[in-house]
Amino acid sequence: MMAASRIPAIGGRLRLGEPMQRHTSWRVGGPADRFYLPGTLEDLQGFLRHFAVPPLTWLGLGSNVLVRDGGLRGTTICLAHSLDQIIREENTLLRVGAGAGAVKIAHFAAKAGLAGAEFLAGIPGTLGGCLSMNAGAHGGDTWSLVEWVEVIHPHGEIQRLSPQDFQIGYREVKGHGDACFIAAGLRLIPEARDQVMQRLRDWQEKRAATQPLEWPSCGSVFRNPPGDHAARLIEAAGLKGCVRGEAEVSSQHANFIINRGHARAVDIEALLAEVQAQVQQQFGITLQAEMRILGEAKHA
After folding, report:
1. Does the pTM of the predicted model rise above 0.85?
2. Active centre residues (catalytic)
3. What is the DSSP string of 88-153?
C-alpha cells in the first residue's frame, strides 16, 4: 500500500512502496521501498544528509533501466522534472540540470541557434542518464559537448569536475563512483536557427519512421558491437517478433524490446537473455546491454 508524506523542513515528496512501473518507460517494475522526488537542489542535499536510507538508486525518466518485479530496496531518488533548468550562461554555453530531458535540451539549443545537441532529440532520457552512459545517436555523443559537470555525493556534498576526471568510452563512463550527476555545462556551436531546427526535425521524423515509439520500451537495448549493428545481428538471427509473455522483439526495429501491454520485468529479462544466447550461438558475438537491470526478482 502506498503512502506519501511531506518531509519536515526540507521539501520534496517521499513515497513509500511506490510502484516503479509508473516511473519507467517500459512500464514495468515492482515497488521502491522509499521513493523521493526533490523540489530543489537544497531539498536534495538536506534529504541526503538526514533522511536517505541506503542503498541509493538514482533515476531520471526511467528510460534506460529495467526494474525487476520484486522492486528496489533502500531509497530511490528521481531527478526528472525537478533539477531540469536550462540556462544560457554564455553565448555558446548552456548550464543544464541533470533532470532536464534530452529532447528538451535539443529543442532549447536549436531555438537558441546553437548546433551540436540535435542528436539528443533521439534519446528518451534525462541529461543525468546521458552523462552516466555517454548516450548518443546519429554519430553524436553526450560527453563531446561537456565542458564541466557537477556531482552530488551521498552525504550531500557538491563537486565540480572536468571531463578529464572520468574515463569516457562508448556508452560507458567511469570515475564518478557513488556520486550522481546533477548538472553540466554544454558547449555548443553557433549556427543559423532555421538550419538547426530543420536538422532537428529531419532526425525526429527519421526516428518516428524507424522506431516503435507507440509501444513502451527503453530505447535501444544493446550496444552496437565494433564494426556492426546490434539490430542487424538480431534480425539476421531471425529474432524479430520473438515473444516472452507480452514482451516482444520489435518487428520494426530489432534492437527494441517492447511491452505489448502487460509484460512483466521477468518476461523482458528472459527475452534479453534469449536474444544474447541466439546471437552468440549463430555469430559468436556477445551483445552487451546498454540498459541497466535494477532491483530484485519477485519471489513466489
Report:
1. yes
2. 171, 220, 290
3. E-SSSEEEEETTSBHHHHHHHHHHTTEES-GGGGG--SBHHHHHHHT-EETTEEGGGSEEEEEEE-
